[in-house]
Amino acid sequence: MKSRHITEILDQTAFAELGAEDLTIINAHVKDCQNCQKAFEAARLSSVWLSTQAVLAPPAPSPFFQAKVLNAIRNKQNMVKPIAVFKRWWNASAALVFSMLMAVAFLIALTALAPADYDNTQAEISGFNPYSTEAVLFNQRPSRDLTTEQVFQVIYEPASDSER
Amino acid sequence: MPRNSIEQENALPNEYENLPDNELATRAAAGDEAAFGEIVRRFSPRVFRFAGRFFRRYSLVEEAAQEVFLKAFVQLKNFHGRGSLEGWLTRITVTTCINLLRTAKRQPELTVSDLTEDETVWLEEKIFNVSSAHYKNEEDKLVAADLVNRVLETLPPEDTLVLTMIDGEGASVREVAAFMNWSESNAKVKAFRARKRMREGVEKLLKAKDDKFFKIEKTTK
Q1: What is the pTM assigned to this prediction?
Q2: A-to-B residue pairs, Cβ atoms closer than 8 angstroms
Q3: Which domain-ending residue is among B43, B78, B103?
Q4: pLDDT at B213 > cutoff 70
């Protein structure tokens, strides 16, 4: 029988649970196979040591264990407090930032939707500057339809007799 | 049910001792520290026993047990009394211990230098003298438990649990499967692999013993 068979038998069930038939097969095999003999010895020792460990008295809590746990809980709760404060602060800041963003969005919407009293784009196309000398001299809202020639005419036309 | 601090202060410790587990859990979840203290007192021996299956050093067992109760305190609000409080705490114990073992660095394989001269001689003397299921002498029991723990420390945490429960305490595969929430076939496969690793670990230990014993004999001659 190959050694694999013996180790398989050993690993399949707990050593203490091995039946008489299994033990007969194992004992017959280990007489000739040194590797399997070592495996058998190791399995036997494992079983004995594990059951020995199980019968040893389990570790018991010390009389101060309860107090230790309650102290640890209190410490943990105290550690949690600064986090709660930070959370409250964070929520308050979030509300503030949100209201600011809403205000900015409102202003953007107003700028985009409200009717403009002066079409800047049109002014740029026509090359008319509302702050030009001409506009200031007229002292009134310049007409968008005023041509350059008309402006020059107003500026450079000879003064009337009454003005002189 | 004492909901405020004044009522809690007036509640006598005896009152908690007689309360059923689920009632204690409800009070502790509501923030009653004395009720949680009673839970710790009532279940710490069981938590220690289970943690003792995973850790050899007492300080580690205590650390794991403390971690278990801290987790239990935080998670008590999620305990709705569907199962037993004992079972719920045991599950937390097992998962906590496995997680602690996973995060801890696993010990490398045992080597010749890990065995002291006394241990080598003890192994040489006792190896063939064990006929019963376990040692009778208290000192032998302690040495054997120490050696088995050293081998177990080299194995994955789930192997340790399977081996201590099935091969050590005589639990059935079904019990382990139910305890760990595994299928029976999965528990069987895990037990098979764990036994193989354990056997190989002990074989290495015995080889280390042979090498060391050879050296000791050589120096004494």
Answers
A1: 0.63
A2: 138
A3: B103
A4: no
